Amino acid sequence: MLRRPIETTRLFGQFGDSFRIAGDTLISKKMTIDELKPWQEKTVVLHLYDGEVTTAKVDVVDAEYEDIIVSVLTSNRHYERPRELARFAIRAADIQRIDLAEV
Questions:
Q1: What are the extents of the domains in the chain?
Q2: Which of 21, 50, 71, 72 has the most C-beta neighbours closer than 10 Å?
Q3: Has domain 18-100 been given CATH number 1.20.140.10?
Q4: Residue 48: which residues within 8 A CB-CB, separation 6 or more?
Q5: pLDDT for the residue 5
Q6: Which pLDDT score, from 0 to 100, does residue 32 have?
Q7: Which stretches of the chain drop beneath a pLDDT of 70?
Q8: How far is residue 27 from each of residues 7, 82, 94, measured CA to CA in Å?
C-alpha cells in the first residue's frame, strides 16, 4: 500500500469488527475511532494490514475522517522524507493491531 504524507492523501481500508486482548494491545478486524481515542498523544507500535509495522506518536484521532494522524519514528518501510516531516494519516480500518511502545 502506497503511503503519502498527510497533506497529499488519506488512506482507505476494508475490514470488519474488533476485539481486545490482555495488556496494552488491541487487535482488530476493523479498528474504530472510539478504540483509538485512548491512544492519542501516546507513542505506539502500529501493525497495519499491508504488513507495515511502524512506531509512531499518535498526534490526532480524527473522528470526522475516521483516521489517525501520526508522526512516524521508525518503520519497516523506507520513506524519502526526513523523520521530522514524516506525518501521515492512517485510516482506522487499516490498523490490525496497536501496542504501547516501550520508550
A1: 18-100
A2: 72
A3: no
A4: 1, 54, 90, 94, 95, 96
A5: 44
A6: 86
A7: 1-29, 83-84
A8: 28, 30, 12
pLDDT digits (tens, 9 = 90+) for 20-48: 444 555 555 678 889 999 999 999 999 99
Which cell numbers hold the place of 66? Answer: 475516521
Please give the pLDDT value at position 2. 41
Contacts of 74 (CB under 8 A, 6+ apart): 54, 55
Are the C-beta atoms of 6 and 87 separated by less than 8 Å? yes
| Residue matched to cell numbers 500500500 | 1
Write down the H helix ranges in the chain.
33-36
18 within 8 A of 77, measured Cβ to Cβ: no
Per-residue pLDDT, 29: 62
